Amino acid sequence: MKPTAPLRPITDDEVATFWRDGVVCLRQVLPQALLESMAGPLEDALGGAAVTNLSTMGDDLERHAGAVRLVDENVRAAPVPRGHFKAGTDHWCDQPEFLAFATRSPLGPIVSRLLGSAQVRLYEDSVLVKEPGTHEKTAFHQDMAYFHLAGELVCTTWVPLDSVRAESGAVRFVVGSHRDRTRYKPNMFVTTMTLPDTIGAEVPDYDDDQPEQIGRARIVNFDTEPGDITVHHARTIHGAYANASATQRRRAISVRYAGDGTTFVPVAGGFPKPHHAHLHVGDPLDDRASPLAWPRD
């Protein structure tokens, strides 16, 4: 993949929105050909060992651990086949197309502009697919709770390969939540059950059945088309709707980046990454752990 620039410049207003709200939707910044080129690699990833069926995992947690799955009852009651929520991470380690997408696409310079960071490194990528009829909502969570990182300049890009609406599983963001310095526990994504042995507070319940909580927060989602992306700060609390559509998939690739001054700090109880094995607490990220996405040679 040849290095490419965004289809248009990122404006000062968009940078200000990112830092004010903790999230910004950037319209038509990625070329269609780039997105189409990732459809096949995404399908390959879905068939690999790095992907988990979170719907099945939620069933197991409910059955054996007493967890309560976060489901949209209207979707569960609809006369359509049940879909599944599948997700995986670190596809760049095994699939060169994902490495190129993260480090040679417009995402690197976009993140550099938003963060105001001279250097941008790939931390992690993820595929996030909700098939039509997926009952499960995504629990509100904070990405930084999962990341083995310390630093202010850390963010997540969310790149849809399909048209996305609330009905088909749009991501929901708690505006301004990145300004909260509270350390939150990571959860299991389809339930609020937290990972064992992790440290921090429980994420506030912003779900639809908690109107008193929603009343104290502004929650936004964006209708997006392929070519649009959202970028949110790693401390921004967010979740997602179930996929109520009977026909529309919700395929997305999420790429997480670290900017200047970010260091390695393992999360207690978190999942270690083999490519971090050589790092010690406080080490800066290097090419082996986090390939450079910007600047490019």
TrEMBL record:
SUPFAM superfamilies: Clavaminate synthase-like. Residues 280-297 have a biased composition (Basic and acidic residues). Pfam families: PhyH. Residues 278-297 are annotated as: Disordered. Gene3D superfamilies: q2cbj1_9rhob like domain. InterPro entries: Phytyl_CoA_dOase-like. PANTHER family: PHYTANOYL-COA DIOXYGENASE (PTHR20883:SF49), PHYTANOYL-COA DIOXYGENASE DOMAIN CONTAINING 1 (PTHR20883). This is Unannotated protein.
